[in-house]
Amino acid sequence: xxxxxxxxxxxxxxxxxxxxxxxxxxxxxxxxxxxxxxxxxxxxxxxxxxxxxxxxxxxxxxxxxxxxxxxxxxxxxxxxxxxxxxxxxxxxxxxxxxxxxxxxxxxxxxxxxxxxxxxxxxxxxxxxxxxxxxxxxxxxxxxxxxxxxxxxxxxxxxxxxxxxxxxxxxxxxxxxxxxxxxxxxxxxxxxxxxxxxxxxxxxxxxxxxxxxxxxxxxxxxxxxxxxxxxxxxxxxxxxxxxxxxxxxxxxxxxxxx
Length: 257
Description:
This protein is of the alpha+beta class. It is built from seven helices and nine strands; from the N terminus they run ααβββαβαβαβββααβ.
């Protein structure tokens, strides 16, 4: 169970804004591991992915999923599917307070039971620094877990002057092959993310941002290496397995990520 007490939304927003600012002070931008600096990521052996899947029409109960894959093979080493109850409301810009406690619990269960399988990096289905206050769910999970994290979003968050303009669409068209990318720059001039064409076959970009203990260039490079399809394999496997868990346990329900 990942429950939070019922508090008026405005009070929650004030509380969360303060907590977010406090946690942000602990955020580390930049590579901290030797394997991050190696051209072939030598020394990286385990990559994690997390996701939550919901039953359509039910925004309280969800399946929290953690997978750990081998690197570079991207074969499954560990999976944890857990039904959770989310009592915190969805508020734009504060998704982490709704979802992170359950994802953190999954990582803590793994650390208690099979510490040798702890991931060296966690891919998060969501944003990191690419956020209203530069502290999205990937940052939140990274700081609380202490693990290097990368945020990977499938759609553009229109924030800090970054919009789905004709210029943006033109830049997407210029991504000719897998691995091509371009920076997303806020009105302040700060680069918050990279739009990445993850494979030759996929024309829709991913939006990659730093979560914790990563440089943006390394996050983009590792994301591309982990893509067999459009979405990096750790996130794709977490999504597939959480949906399958819901289909198995709630066969009459539709699911959504």
